[in-house]
Amino acid sequence: MARTHSASVTLATLVAALACGEAAGPSPSAPRIDYVDGAIEPLLVTGASIVIEGFGFGDGQAPGSVRFPRLGSGTTPAAVAAWSDRAIRLSVPDSAASGTLTVTSDGGRTLTTTVHVLPRVTFDPIALTWQARTAFPRAPVGVALTTGTEPVGSALTIRLYAAGGAEPLGGDSVMVPDSAVFFARAVSGGVIGSWSRPRDLPAPRAFAAAAFGNRYNSRFDGRALYVIGGADSSGRARATVFQSLATSDTTMGGFVAIEPLPAPRAGAIAVVRRGRIYVMGGADSLGRPQSNVFVGRIGVSMGTSTAGTPSRPSPSRARMAVVWC
To answer: Which of 64, 39, 67 is closest to 213 using CA atoms?
Structure first.
């Protein structure tokens, strides 16, 4: 079969750009699917454009294919936009369902992985109504809030994490940053369960950003909460990034400092997309608004064995990407 070298180069360039300068490394020894949309076992939405990463797909699509489980029964093909030996870009079919995704390489080899497919929901502001739920334990401002989402059968488990913040001291002229971290479950109908305080940050932070990584949105086969930047007790923005590894869906480990941001930020926002955390905006240590966007990949640290070769990744050593960019 003729090799479509130009298509391979184009898609390889796309993946390299998404990797934020991260080296692709040597080819694996056996064909496989590594990640779908930057995650081990991704949560996907119908109609979305995604990328499958791995090895051994073949340099040309025909007669290769990608098929999703279909609502009801059977399978449904995906519309492929680009195909190379190590990456495939495609759209999730509207009729796709959760289950086993199958990639058939140009040589007829079958590769599979598990995906979770959610229906595309259109937001209707007319239907939005506000309802009072379980009150937060305190009355701070500048709290870092994020969610951890995991599929359980046909439903989703959603956990809320709130970190830091500041409360007024002697009125509202002085705000004192706090180190408390709270956790609650969100259940059907938007009801919020009781708040608990499993851990505190190593240092007070107000107006920090927060993000959560797991196997469903990243390359990390575990659960990790990240509290990023924020203002310290002196009111100055910091570049620190604190990470807590969760040993279960309700138990958090102690926070440790990992790779800091390239520059101090307070009041930024953070989102996770395709296994990476994007930190946007905020103010620097002098209070000046910033337009930078920093990107860090959620990954697992690689140790080194006594023989000098990389050791097997361990969820207990998960960390942010080697560099923010």
So the answer is: 39
